[in-house]
Structure formats: C-alpha cells, structure tokens
Amino acid sequence: MTSQASQAEAPLLSVQDLKIQIQMDNGLMRAVDGVDFEIKKGKTLGLVGESGCGKSLTSRAIISINPKECEATGNILYHSDSENVDLLKLNPRGKQIRSIRGRKIAMIFQEPMTAFSPMYTIGNQIMESILIHRTKDKKEAKRIALEMLSKVGISDEEKRFNQYPHEFSGGMRQRAMISMALSCNPELLIADEPTTALDVTIQAQVMELMKGLQKEFGMAILLVTHDLGIIAEMCDEVAVMYLGKIVEQSTVGEIFKNPKHPYTKGLLRSMPRLGGNRNARLESIEGTVPIPINMPPMCGFYDRCKDRIDGICNTRAVPKTQISDNHMVRCFLYADEGEGK
Prior knowledge:
The chain is an alpha/beta fold.
C-alpha cells in the first residue's frame, strides 16, 4: 500500500471506550457504555438507533457540549494534519477546544430554529463563526457568508443574509445551518438527525446537498439518525447503537445484506421495501427500550429478543465478536464465530 493510500484510510477521529454517566435521584444512568468507532478522512459513518439509545450524547461529547451533569470517560482522539489531541481531556470552555469546535469539527443540529438565535439575522450568525475562525475582516467574512448561502442553494442571498430565522422555511433554515457549519471548511461534520423536521422532498434535497458538499470539501461526516433509508443513501460504514452500546458495526453493504444482531435484523424487517407484497404487514420490534439505570451485567436487548438464550443473555455482559475484518457484533449467538473481546 502506498503512503498516500495509507493516509487516505487513516482515521480522522477515534472514539475509544466512551462512557457517559449521569447521576439520577434513583441511581446511576449509563447513557453511553463503552462506545468505540473510527471515522476515516472523507468518509461517512452512520450512527443509527432508536431515540434514547445515546446517539446524540455520543456525538455531542466529541465537541464537549453535553450538559455538565454528563460525566464522560474514555478517549476521543482527533488526528488532524496539524495536531493529534484527545478531545475528552480538554477543558470544555478552554481555548484549545474552541479553536477546534466550529473550525475543524462542525455540527448540524436536529432543529435549526432552536440552534439559531431569533435576535440576530442569519447573515450575522454565519459571519460570527467566520470572524472567530477565519478572518477579522468583516467585508471578507460577509463575502464568505454570501458565498456559502449560495452554495447551499439559497437564492437571492443578499436579501436572505439580512433576514431573521423566522423568515426562513424549515428547509431553508436547515440549508442555512449547513452553510454556517461549512463556512470554516471543517474536516469533520457532525449531522445530528439533520432531516427529522423536514418533509420527504426537502429531506432528499438536503441529503444530496450534503453529499455534494462533502465531495467538494473532502470532509468526513458523522451522520446520526434513526432512518435506515438515509443510512443506505449516505454512509460508507454503519454503527448500530442500542442502550448506550454499539451492538453491530460494518460497511453499509454488509449490514444490509448480512445483518447479524437480532436488533439490526428487526430494524431492517421494519422497513418498507419496493417490490414487496403490498398487503404484507411490516414487522415491529416488540417492547420498549429500558431505562439504563442500575442495569445488571446482561444483554440490554434481552427482554425484546426472540433469539435470547436464558441463563446466558440475562446473566453476563455481552462480549464483542469480530465476525470478519470489518464486521463486529455484540451478541452471544456469534460468540464462537470469532474472537470475543
């Protein structure tokens, strides 16, 4: 392998044994419990799972914006051309993390109406990030802001620059949020449910926009979602998350063609498919996600799993099993097929 190819495959971000705990009145909540993944330069990793599984806490921990009640341990290693740093060890309010947050790692939030301040114009808020990270020249900052509004498909950008968030439609606000996130040419874009509040047509437009801008800027993307259709369209690799743990991880093609974990299989069976029986009922995963407070060492999916093994799945922690070089599953059904960890 050439050094150039090796560099292309090198991870931009490595999350190692990330745990996020929250002390509640009735016990300790392990909201994120030993998460590991890597994001390679220029690639897209999808983090998929039901609401409450810890996806957003995991993504926000990367740029240290979780509430102070969240106690995080582990390592989040950021490998840039100019520096290698453990983001989790930095002061959340310190100068070093602020030089990375927004500049090298940017984030698109689920609902831009709450992410934008209603008190300032869209242009003012995009310019603020540019003035902090790229240039102190206000004319240059405005030029960059107008250019970014144009790149994300907002027409009449001079007029829109001076408008307030409430004057934008939902799709336009999401485009403006993307323009603000990309205004400083980040190496990693974190997109937390970027299309949840949008209708299907606008969702498709936003996804196409993100793919085009990724190709133009060469950035990596961490896409947080519960929508497997978006995962199939956007991602190179997928990490399936349940109850604070990654239960399966592989390439998109492998996950869709050869799912292993009962939860992953349930998610895929619940998806409507083109060409399927119109009268067939979609399957659902029975039960609800338990609250991870004072959880004993056992499989978190045990109560909902049709393939559970009594006396094993409910009595001990589930090891990781490496099915192949690029396919990991956390399930006792496959514990003998690979090297457990």
